[in-house]
Amino acid sequence: ADQQRADRLRADQLRADQLRADQLRPVSPPPDGITLLGRLRRAHPGLRAVVLAAADDPHRAARALHAGATGWVAKESSLARLLAVVRGVLRDETHLPPALLTGVIRELTTARRDRTESERLVDTLTPREKQILRCMVAGLGRQAVAERLYLSPHTVRTHMQNVLGKLGVHSTLAAVAVARRAGVSPAEPALPSPPSVAGVPERG
C-alpha cells in the first residue's frame, strides 16, 4: 500500500513532456514500470512515453502500448535509433521495431478477445455482486466488505461465492484477474466516520 501511494504521488507530481520507462526487469512487488506508465498517462494524458527495454518482447510491448507508450527501443539499439524513436514520438508517431509488429498485433488481438469475454462475464453479475467484486479488486477481506456495505459476513460470503461461480473461477485472485481484464476499478477508499458528539441525540 505504501508503494502504491508513493507511485501515485510520483505520478501526480511529475511534470514532463516525455517519459522513459526503464524495463530492465519488473519491480517486485508490483507495480512494475509499465503499471507506473499507465498511471502517469492517466494523470498526464499529453505525456509521450518511450520504453527502453532489455529485449524485444511482444507481450511486454503490447502491454506498454496499452498503457500509453508510443515508442519501444531495445537497450542494445544504437544511439541513432534511440534518437530517431524519441524524435518520432515527439511528432506523435508510434515507433516499434519491425520484428515486433506481428507479435504485438497478435498480443493485442488476444487481449481484446480476453477483455470482451471478461466483460461479458462481469455483466452477468447483479449490482450488489459488482459492488462486492470492486471491493475484492481493492483487496478488501470478507469482514472489511461486510463493514463497508453494512452486511453480515455470512451474506458477503454468499455473494463472493456467487461472484466466483458466475465468473467461472475458484479463487478471489482469479476473480480479480477477470475483473481487471474487464476494466473493473477498485472500490474507492471508505470515508472516515464523522466524530460523534456526546450528549447530542441523533435525529431522523
Q: For the largest beta sheet, what order do the strands appear in spatially?
A: 1-2-3
Helix content: 55-70%
- The ordered H/E elements are HEHEHEHHHHHH
Radius of gyration: 21 Å
User: Describe the biggest sheet?
Assistant: 3 strands, parallel
Per DSSP, the total helix count is 9
How many strand elements?
A: 3
CATH class of the largest domain, anyone? Alpha Beta
Shape: elongated
Task: Walk me through what this model shows.
The protein has helices at residues 2-13, 33-43, 58-67, 79-90, 98-123, 127-137, 142-149, 153-167, 172-181; strands at 18-23, 48-53, 71-74. It is mostly helical and 204 residues long. The chain has a 3-stranded parallel β-sheet, with helices on both faces. The longest helix is centred in the middle third of the chain and has 26 residues, at 98-123. It starts with a helix and ends in a 23-residue tail after the last helix.
Please provide a brief summary of the model.
The protein is mostly helical and 204 residues long.
Write the layout of secondary structure elements.
Blueprint: H1 2-13, E1 18-23, H2 33-43, E2 48-53, H3 58-67, E3 71-74, H4 79-90, H5 98-123, H6 127-137, H7 142-149, H8 153-167, H9 172-181
Parallel strand pairs: 1-2, 2-3
Helix pairs in contact: 1-2, 2-3, 3-5, 6-8, 6-9, 7-8, 8-9
Descriptors for this entry?
single chain, 204 residues, mainly alpha, Rossmann fold, Arc Repressor Mutant, subunit A, 3-stranded parallel beta sheet, 3 strands, elongated
